Amino acid sequence: MTNENPNLLTVPLEFKVACFTYKISLQEALQIFINYCTLYHTLKPGYSRLYNEALETIFRYLELKRPGTEPVVDQGNEIQGCLLAILEEVVENGANERSAKKEVAKQVNRLIKSTPGTYYPKSRKLYLDEETPLELSKDFCAMCELYECHPAEILDYYMSKISLAEMDTRWDLRIEEDNCSMYFFMATVFNYLQQHKELLNLTDEEDQFQQDVEEYRLYLYHIKNLAHRTRLLKEFYEDHYLRINPNELYYAN
Amino acid sequence: MNINVSNEFAQMCHYSQQTPEEVLQAFADQVSYPLFFTTKDRNKKLATYFFIQLVQSPEFTGQINESLEEHYFMQMATAINESFAQFPGDGERAIAIARKIMEQWAKSAIAERSRYLTDDL
After folding, report:
1. Which long-range contacts (CB under 8 A, 24 or more apart) does A105-109 make?
2. Most exposed among A222, A235, A237, B32, judged by the fewest C-beta atoms under 10 Å?
3. Are the C-beta atoms of A57 and A157 separated by less than 8 Å?
4. Which chain A residues contact residue B33 at CB under 8 A?
5. CA distance to partner chain A, nearest, from residue B54 (Å)
6. Could you report the per-residue pLDDT of B84-105, keeping only the tens digit for each?
7. Out of A218, A219, A222, whose CB is closest to B77?
8. d(C-alpha A15, C-alpha A160), whole Å
9. In this prediction, does ipTM exceed 0.90?
10. Is residue B95 part of a domain?
11. Does the distance separating the beta carbons of A224 and B73 come in below 8 Å?
12. Would the CB atoms of A223 and B73 count as touching at under 8 Å?
């Protein structure tokens, strides 16, 4: 799908369905993802839960876009050189996370300002619609420059990896897949719901739909093909979503 | 068949004046893929839903030959669709055809299992 306005994001129906199901706004869900993409974690050795999954999402997108190339940019790149220097410093001095984060962001942003690149977004805002902005962090913008891609590309890719229907079907068929983006989505949604416990109280309608989904998943038992079964469950989710949000029908078609 | 009847089950049978045997018989009569795939009556699907839920749950310990299952489910779906296309509304015919496929499935499952046994010899 091509956007006429590069600052306006097109949200796939399945991503809307996923956010709707867990009662998190599109804005909130995407903002959380943006906020977890940090320069510091591109350098930090070892595993940091959720930060690594967010980063891995970007790296997988880059791999898809430019197969075979390392996510790291060319040798002569000044920013890359600076990042490596900072990495050494962080590791050697054992700087604490907070100051290291600041230092990394400061250095990179200083560099990017002095040599404006082609990918660093001109506006720090992306829009879901006229009234709903996403705030692109400086880190996120710097990473776009670093990895030579536009913010919307990364978010499009992230959203494209989110599918409740596929997650459920894989679970039912016991076909595992290493989908770091889906993991990230579910884990952050879970955190979000823990912080907004009132959302865990389901209305009768929501409760009924949960039961309907459970029953439909059992009904689909006889279909063993992953793609086929995922498609049917996806339609089930989407039909429900469009029934409750009929104004979305216009956009969906 | 020898099963333990829990207190709750016994109590529920008692107040509805049915024996556990009668209740289980009524249940057993409706655990059926042919019925499940041909009836429109959701209530008549419930016993089979229970069965599917059981075999699909992560705690399920039985063994299912999945390639046979896939094969016969597909055959059954095709046969039922064709039957309804030819004779719309004739549930009896569709169910009879589906039952024949279930019989073939059961035979194949037994053949498969004995093949494993003889292969080990």
Report:
1. A105/A38, A105/A39, A105/A40, A105/A138, A105/A139, A105/A142, A107/A82, A107/A83, A108/A39, A108/A79, A108/A82, A108/A83, A108/A142, A108/A146, A109/A138, A109/A142
2. A235
3. yes
4. 222
5. 10
6. 999 999 999 999 999 999 999 9
7. A222
8. 7
9. no
10. yes
11. yes
12. yes
Please give the backbone phi and psi of residue A18, each rounded to the nearest 5 degrees, phi first: -65, -45
Per-residue tokens: B55? 């075999």
Residue-wise pLDDT for A77-108, tens only, equals 666 666 667 666 766 666 677 777 777 777 77
Q: Give the domain ranges of chain A.
A: 13-160, 164-252
Q: What is the dihedral of CA A90, A91, A94, A98, to 10 degrees?
A: 40
Matching residue, tokens 């599917």: B52
Interface test with B, best of A168, A218, A225, A232 (most B CBs within 10 A): A218
Mutation pick from B42, B50, B52, B66 vs chain A, by most beta carbons of A within 10 Å, is: B52
The answer as to whether B24 is a domain residue is: no
Residue A174 contacts by C-beta under 8 Å, 6 or more apart in sequence? Answer: none
- The reply to whether residue B70 touches residue A224, judged by beta carbons under 8 angstroms, is yes
Give the domain range for residue B99.
31-119
Number of domains in chain B: 1
